[in-house]
């Protein structure tokens, strides 16, 4: 019988092993370690407030970025125990102030204790940025990672990827069965990471899925925020402004798709997570500016917008030109988008803002 030692001074807990996983097979619902789960506490010095059946699901997030934090809040509000990782002490303190259990994680030298604690979680979300020349920094520890994930309570693995893996498709609609053709090194590394996590999940008998995300936006990270904060566009953003089509997705819809996948797990499945209306960046910024001027007349006159001072690069790079289909998340996962277009998404964001420089809590 294997022992699961929870960091934070809690006693060792034996892991049941009465279900032998077979490759490609997801454990049935009645064998989801229900006897073990109520006895596990979160990776913190204080037990979770809800220790009954409502907190039996446990999510570990590798990389507590924008999407991961949004998902963590939603799951925590639903009674989940959620822990995650970051790479700096400053970020760790910020996340802890927001109520998260967070651990410093060095992908080059991961701590055995933290990795082995994966056995005590039911779900794993991978949201760690790629490293040039390396790819996914966690997958480089193959056998160590495999050992940490096997023979425990883990059932579901989700990997956050990008629609960039499709490359330039000449503006055509692409679904998950469309051949991938990445046009840059980062996209090629992303595709390799997808395959790595899908293979690992399959080998361990876990439900492993890949989520190819469009351009991510949400409260605090949108065209509205860029204009109000007078942030300059990066060269890459200016170049992308020449694209006729850019698929994007509100963070609320990403979380909706992730939770739907958790409810309906499958093995080696890939999902495009985008809205219904790909649109050029310049159009999105024009709409955002209009919303700002309607809600706070005169604001942009007093504070010049970077979008008025900086033009998008016309005739720039069109690499990655495509329209991405989201039919699969609707048909297989039953997703009904909260924000089917950038218009409803931006309207929702500005409605939440109490002032031009302050977001309402979300």
Describe this structure in words.
The chain is of the alpha/beta class and 362 residues long. It has 13 helices and 15 strands. The protein has a seven-stranded parallel β-sheet, with helices on both faces. Residues 5-55 and 305-319 have low confidence and may be disordered.
In brief, what are we looking at here?
The chain is an alpha/beta fold. The protein has helices spanning 66-77, 89-97, 112-116, 142-149, 185-203, 223-228, 235-240, 251-263, 281-295, 299-302, 306-309, 327-333, 342-352; strands at residues 2-4, 13-15, 58-62, 81-86, 101-104, 123-126, 156-162, 173-174, 207-213, 215-217, 248-250, 269-273, 323-324, 353-355, 358-359.
General shape: globular
The helix-strand sequence is: EEEHEHEHEHEEHEEHHEHEHHHEHHEE
Separate helix tally: 13
Count of beta strands: 15
Q: Which class of secondary structure composition applies to the elements?
A: alpha/beta
Main sheet attributes: strand count, strand direction, barrel closure: 7 strands, parallel
Low-confidence stretches: 5-55, 305-319
What is the terminal-to-terminal distance? Answer: 43 Å
Helix percentage range: 25-40%
């Amino acid at each position: 019988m294997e022992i699961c030692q929870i960091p934070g001074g809690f006693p060792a807990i034996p892991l049941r092993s009465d279900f032998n996983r077979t490759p490609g097979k997801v454990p049935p619902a009645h064998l989801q370690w229900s006897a073990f789960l109520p006895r596990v506490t979160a990776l913190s010095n204080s037990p979770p407030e809800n220790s009954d059946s409502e907190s039996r699901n446990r999510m570990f997030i590798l990389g507590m970025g924008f999407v991961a934090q949004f998902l963590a809040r939603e799951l925590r509000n639903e009674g989940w125990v959620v822990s995650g990782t970051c790479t700096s002490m400053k970020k760790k303190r910020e996340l802890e102030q927001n109520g998260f259990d967070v651990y410093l994680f060095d992908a080059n030298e991961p701590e055995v204790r933290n990795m082995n604690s994966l056995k005590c979680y039911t779900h794993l979300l991978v949201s760690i940025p790629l490293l040039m020349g390396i790819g996914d920094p966690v997958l480089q520890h193959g056998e160590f990672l495999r050992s940490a994930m096997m023979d425990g309570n883990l059932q579901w693995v989700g990997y956050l990827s990008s629609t960039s893996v499709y490359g330039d498709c000449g503006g055509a609609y692409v679904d998950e069965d469309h051949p991938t053709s990445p046009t840059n090194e980062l996209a090629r590394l992303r595709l390799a990471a997808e395959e790595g996590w899908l293979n690992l999940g399959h080998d361990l008998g876990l439900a492993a899925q890949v989520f190819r995300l469009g351009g991510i936006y949400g409260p605090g990270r949108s065209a509205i925020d860029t204009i109000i904060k007078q942030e300059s566009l990066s060269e890459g953003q200016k170049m992308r402004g020449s694209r006729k089509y850019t698929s994007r997705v509100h963070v609320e819809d990403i979380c909706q798709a992730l939770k739907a996948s958790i409810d309906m797990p499958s093995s080696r499945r890939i999902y495009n997570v985008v809205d219904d209306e790909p649109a050029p960046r310049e159009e999105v910024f024009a709409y955002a500016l209009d919303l700002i001027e309607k809600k706070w007349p005169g604001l942009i006159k007093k504070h010049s917008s970077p979008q008025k001072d900086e033009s998008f690069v016309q005739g720039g790079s069109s690499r990655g030109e495509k329209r991405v289909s989201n039919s699969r998340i609707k048909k297989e996962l039953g997703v009904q988008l909260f924000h089917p277009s950038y218009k409803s998404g931006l309207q929702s964001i500005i409605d939440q803002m109490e002032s031009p420089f302050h977001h309402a809590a979300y």
